[in-house]
């Protein structure tokens, strides 16, 4: 007796259940991207197909999520129904757009299937016949990357857009050749771009800062067809300012930070990849860019009506928030000027002792700027600061211990030598360090316990996997090596590698006595645990040795630069005979114009440490000036 009522209650003959199922099937097909099936669930498949395809064009790359609400069956013998639903559009490069809608459904009679009525209100309740949706996206003001004081580093700067007006060209090959010679842009590319351009279209060649344009003005200004409209762009203070750390956007020559548009002519937003970002600009793209806004309007399909439309959805853009770096413009500018005076690829990284803050990262035009932070180079004799740390820590020698400094020494049949095989006889460890005696440090290092050199390096953070927005190569010193490799490691050859940034961190650790993890962004999570350091007793012995390098040793040229400590390095590389060499200087200055600073200079293929010392001299002079 109970079976009948239960079956009746669960029956699928309820008209509302059928209407709900039909509405859900339509929404599932639509949200799943199957527009053909969705249109087939309506009473006019052709009209629905046109409507849904138009909406897909109106909201490019958007995805729809639908939440079906209440379904009510009306009169006329239960042949009409209304379903409420909530639409959420995940708009490309904009926030979500959510609104409530209504689907009308009908069926021919009580036994016929339900169908969604194919009318514009299916898409939006305010959409009418002959209308469509129009999406407009708006970018907020990009937040600045700032210096140590919070002042923006990227500011609106006048630029000259060097280009071609096709209508004014009289001799395209000659024009392309002249523009190419002046700007470095391939003439073939210029020719192809001009030929492909429509009449009256401006054809861009390159965007230059005003000072860079003035340097080529005489070469290009009177060329028939060349034009030079000006504008402003968000640029760093100079073309190379902190390039490895700050990053650039798109065209590295123009160094542009600007709104970029997609194929639909709408501004792109979140595109770290789309914008070609690098450095901190890429790492903090989301924070700097903020959140884009949008406006959706209902407008006439007939573009000749002048209909400006009715706004049916809008969200204001939200500005980004700044990213503060520890960069100090006065130090960065002095570093940039110093490396610019060297024709070979040159890098200079400056660190604040005790904090690990990166105060300047500089590379000249000849260099790959990324090598300042992530380059992997043999450090040569600048490694002797770490070797000396291990020796002093082992307690077998002191700065005053007499040690031999022969012109050559042989390890497992391989001969190692000092520069030009200089022979000092027996001298103190301090003198051997100041004169950079390879043979002394090889002989002494071979007496160290296994792993002592690697442990000394780790005390300064060498080998640490720093977790940074812009990666720094932390160096590599093998924990175990033998024979000739062990000998070579002691003088910064063999398997030892270092970046300028990490060597500057080593110098900062010696200067302060408290080695620190590197800091690229103020307030960011620590890049890693602070290195342990060698201990005060070792530092008290090592520092006077580094001072002697400047007073009487291989960096005597820095003797008039105040209280400077350091170590030179000449690092052989490659297969040439005799081998080529990089030039290094690492050290620190106490009580200088910018307070205590530590630094490392690398001149790639400089052949001698003297070139790195000269760059350091120019840098420190620039700080004083």
From TrEMBL:
Any one Pfam family match given in the protein's UniProt record, by short name: Transpeptidase
Alphabetized UniProt keyword annotations: Cell cycle, Cell division, Membrane
Domain of life, per lineage: Bacteria
Any one biological process term the GO annotation gives: response to antibiotic
Primary location class: membrane
InterPro entries in UniProt: Beta-lactam/transpept, Beta-lactam/transpept-like, MecA_N, PBP_dimer, PBP_dimer_sf, PCN-bd_Tpept
Keyword rRNA-binding included in the entry's annotation: no
tRNA processing recorded as keyword: no
Residues in Penicillin-binding protein transpeptidase domain copies: 348-617
Leader sequence residues: none
Location of this chain's protein in the cell: Membrane
Cellular component, GO, one term: plasma membrane
Protein name per Swiss-Prot or TrEMBL: Cell division protein FtsI/penicillin-binding protein 2
Provenance organism: Klenkia taihuensis
Lineage, uppermost ranks: Bacteria, Bacillati, Actinomycetota, Actinomycetes, Geodermatophilales
């Amino acid at each position: 007796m109970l079976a009948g009522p239960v079956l009746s209650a669960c029956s699928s003959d309820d008209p509302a259940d059928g209407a709900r199922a039909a509405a859900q099937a339509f929404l599932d097909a639509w949200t799943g991207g199957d527009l053909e099936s969705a249109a087939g669930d309506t009473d006019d498949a052709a009209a629905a197909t046109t409507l849904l395809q138009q909406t897909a064009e109106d909201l490019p790359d958007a995805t729809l999520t639908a939440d079906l609400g209440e379904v009510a069956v009306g009169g006329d013998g239960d042949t009409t129904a209304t379903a409420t639903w909530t639409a959420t559009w995940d708009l490309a490069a904009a926030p979500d757009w959510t609104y409530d809608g209504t689907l009308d459904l009908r069926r021919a009679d009580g036994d016929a299937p339900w169908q969604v009525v194919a009318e514009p209100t299916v898409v939006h309740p305010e959409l009418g016949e002959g209308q469509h949706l129009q999406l407009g996206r708006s970018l907020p003001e990009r937040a600045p990357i700032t210096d140590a004081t919070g002042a923006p580093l990227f500011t609106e700067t006048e630029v000259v857009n060097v280009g071609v007006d096709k209508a004014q060209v009289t001799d395209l090959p000659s024009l392309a050749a002249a523009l190419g010679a002046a700007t470095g842009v391939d003439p073939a590319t210029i020719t192809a771009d001009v030929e492909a351009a429509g009449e009256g279209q401006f054809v861009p060649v390159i965007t230059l800062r005003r000072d860079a344009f003035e340097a080529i003005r005489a070469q290009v200004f009177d060329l028939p067809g060349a034009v030079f409209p000006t504008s402003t762009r968000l640029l760093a203070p100079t073309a190379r300012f902190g390039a490895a750390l700050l990053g650039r956007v798109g065209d590295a020559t123009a160094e542009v930070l600007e709104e970029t548009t997609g194929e639909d002519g709408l501004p792109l937003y979140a595109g770290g990849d789309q914008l070609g970002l690098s450095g901190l600009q890429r790492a903090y793209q989301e924070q700097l860019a903020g959140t884009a806004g949008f406006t959706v309007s209902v407008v006439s399909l007939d573009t000749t009506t002048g209909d400006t439309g009715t706004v049916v959805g809008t969200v204001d853009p939200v500005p980004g928030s700044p990213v503060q770096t520890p960069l100090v413009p006065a130090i960065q500018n002095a570093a940039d000027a110093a490396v610019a005076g060297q024709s070979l690829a040159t890098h200079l990284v400056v660190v604040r002792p005790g904090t690990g803050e990166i105060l300047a990262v500089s590379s000249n035009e000849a260099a790959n700027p990324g090598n300042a932070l992530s380059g992997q180079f043999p450090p040569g004799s600048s490694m002797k600061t770490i070797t000396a740390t291990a020796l002093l820590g082992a307690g077998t020698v002191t700065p005053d211990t007499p040690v031999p400094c022969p012109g050559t020494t042989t390890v497992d049949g391989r001969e190692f030598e000092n520069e030009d095989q200089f022979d000092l006889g027996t001298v103190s460890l301090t003198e051997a360090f100041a004169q950079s005696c390879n043979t002394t440090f090889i002989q002494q290092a071979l007496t160290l316990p296994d792993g002592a050199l690697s442990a000394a390096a780790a005390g300064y953070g060498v080998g640490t996997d720093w977790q940074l927005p812009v990666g720094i190569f932390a160096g590599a010193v093998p924990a175990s090596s033998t024979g000739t490799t062990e000998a070579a490691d002691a003088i910064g050859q063999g398997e030892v590698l270092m970046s300028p940034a990490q060597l500057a961190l080593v110098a900062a650790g010696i200067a302060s006595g408290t080695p620190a993890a590197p800091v690229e962004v103020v307030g960011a999570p620590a890049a890693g645990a602070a290195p342990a350091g060698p201990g005060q007793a070792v530092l008290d012995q090592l520092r006077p040795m580094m001072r002697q390098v400047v007073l009487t040793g291989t960096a005597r040229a820095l003797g008039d630069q105040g209280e400077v400590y350091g170590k030179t390095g000449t690092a052989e590389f490659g297969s040439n005979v005799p081998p080529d060499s990089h030039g290094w200087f690492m050290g620190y200055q106490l009580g200088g114009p910018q307070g205590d600073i530590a630094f490392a200079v690398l001149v790639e293929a400089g052949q001698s440490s003297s070139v790195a010392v000269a760059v350091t001299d120019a840098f420190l002079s620039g700080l004083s000036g």
